[in-house]
Amino acid sequence: MEAMIYQGPGRRSWDEVPDPVITDPADAVVQVDAVTICGTDLHILKGDVPEVRPGRVLGHEAVGTVVAAGPAVTTLRPGDRVLVSCISACGRCRYCRTGMFGQCLGGGGWVLGHLIDGTQAEYVRIPFADTSAYRLPDSVADRAALLLADILPTAFEVGVRNGGVRPGDSVLIVGAGPIGLAAVTTARLLTPAHIVVVDPAGPRREAAKTMGADVAVGTPEDAEKVVAELTGGLGADVTIEAVGVPETFELCARLVRPGGRVANVGVHGTPATLHLEHLWMRDVTITTGLVDTCSTPDLLKMVAAGRLDTSGFVTHEFALSDMEAAYRTFADPASTGALKIAAFRDGFRDEPAA
User: Fold this and answer.
1) In Gene Ontology terms, what is one molecular function of this protein (predicted)?
2) Sorting pLDDT into bands at 50, 70 and 90, what band is 348?
3) What's the CATH architecture for 2-150+293-344?
């Protein structure tokens, strides 16, 4: 088969690799019908994730069709259409038994495209298939389901839920890339009073407003002014960091109110300064996290019921065999306007059942 291979920092290639096979009774092999690229893949290519070794197949988000299932798999059968989660879960360890699948001790967690070969390929092996893939309703199109593999549960769990967003809150989201926009979309489920987004890119600010932000500004200075006006100078109840650079984390910590919550979602490749000289007496809660995907079944129900709209996220579509072009487009959003891309198996038509 062909797949997107990490060749070391700054290098990737679309090459022939062996087809995946079942190596454990709990495995399934899935034909990839649709796949996307994550900002974390770009971090890997920059060398920010040293655990990823050259030769690894990239990717941890996909929708596909089961073509083989190990003898221990009980809930999936060949022919089933499934969402491949970015997180694998053994289902038995201490963390999995409490829903913290991202911290799985039994060989799961974030492994696809990280510690084992991932989804940007014609086929992918899914470990712990019963607890790491989700059968899809016929009514949910692949491009809609793709958003449930990572960014929507990540934004909801690590940003909105960890941040404790409540009805009536003022929420500041720093970064209007895919994760920041997913935070806007899922924060609205909790009916905050105000959602303020800060991002230097005009098209992303417009996307944020389309998806439900009340105000979108381009600079930290404008964000500080708007938050002060909306909160009577207190600061935001919740600030969500969705970029992964020191300046954006420090902005979130600066604009949160006393007693407020800072939820870091961004993937950081360099240290950020924690200004405890200002924070120590302000009762601020700071959370970090890797998505667990425990919210995926509920988010999937909302998409199927038309209660959660994912239609604005996918801006560019490609054939799977054209993943090189997909990467170039996704990696240059300032020029391309890309939010999320969807790459479909050659000849595949993404048409949900009526």
Assistant:
1) zinc ion binding
2) low
3) Alpha-Beta Complex (3.90)
Is residue 327 within 8 A of residue 165, CB to CB? The reply is: no
Residues in CB range of 175: below 8 A, 6 or more apart: 198, 199, 241, 242, 243, 248, 266
Domain covering 153-287 assigned CATH 3.40.50.720 in the classification: yes
The owner of tokens 């870091």 is 264
Q: Match 């595949």 to its residue by tokens.
A: 348
* pTM score: 0.93
Q: Tokens representing 287?
A: 């959370």
Digit-coded pLDDT (tens) for 113-135: 999 999 999 999 999 999 999 99
Which class for 228: exposed (0-12), middle (13-18), buried (19 or more C-beta within 10 A)? middle
Q: Tell me the mean pLDDT in the region 49-65.
A: 97
Q: Where are the domains of the chain?
A: 2-150+293-344, 153-287
Question: What confidence score (pLDDT) does residue 207 get?
Answer: 95
Give the 3-state DSSP-derived string for the chain, with helices as H, strands as E and coil as C.
CEEEEEEECCEEEEEECCCCCCCCCCCEEEEEEEECCCHHHHHHHHCCCCCCCCCCECCCCEEEEEEEECCCCCCCCCCCEEEECCCECCCCCCCHHHCCHHHCCCCCECCECCCECCCCECEEEECCHHHHEEECCCCCCHHHHHCCCCHHHHHHHHHHHCCCCCCCCEEEEECCCHHHHHHHHHHHHHCCCEEEEECCCHHHHHHHHHCCCCEEECCHHHHHHHHHHHHCCCCEEEEEECCCCHHHHHHHHHHEEEEEEEEECCCCCCCCCCCHHHHCCCCCEEECCCCCCCCHHHHHHHHHCCCCCCCCCEEEEEEHHHHHHHHHHHCCHHHHCCCEEEEECCCCCCCCCC
For residue 353, pLDDT beyond 50: no
